[in-house]
Amino acid sequence: MNTANQPVVAGARLPQALETSGVGLACELPADSGSDGRIWIPTGVSLRIRIANPAHRARLLAAIFDIEPDPDLRLVLLGAEVNALSVEERTALRARLAFLASAGGLLSNLDAWENIILPLGCHHPERLQGIAVEVRALITELGAAPELLLAKLPEEMTPLERKITGFVRILLEAPDLVLVENFAAGLDSAERTRLSYFANTYHARHPGGTFVQLEDVLGG
To answer: What pLDDT, on a 0 to 100 scale, did the predictor assign at position 31?
Structure first.
């Protein structure tokens, strides 16, 4: 079920028997992680999860994005039990994932256009033809002015502009699972409502994708 047009809600609990079919993200964390330690998120939804313990949050992100598995962490990503995969299979799986850091994850010496287009050129050069129109449309849809944003360096951007730039880069790569870390960081109350724009834009382009907001404090 796609919940892109519904409010972002707290993450569901992991079943006792770890299922893999139709699962976007499932894991079991230590009991002092700041929640009940269990996460179970089906594919095709937008969900918010809270992990208050920074060490456990970092451990989960490392298990998701590092090539080497965490042997002590049960983890399912996009229907696959990660620890059962070969190195080649884990590498292919991680190519289907994306992470938006709270500061946008941009390179400081590149402007917004370069931060968006250079990774795309490396990973999907076939997408570059006509991409400028698509980039401008996405920036506008997410609530910024492309004619002003694209020439800015990260230090010249507002926190929201950095998140928009990083997210446009993610949208163009069309990942199956997106994790957004502490979206509210650095934003005022009005800007925080933009998260729904991010989730809705992602699901409009990728209806079967999974959008996860990872927070250290529930509600941002």
So the answer is: 63
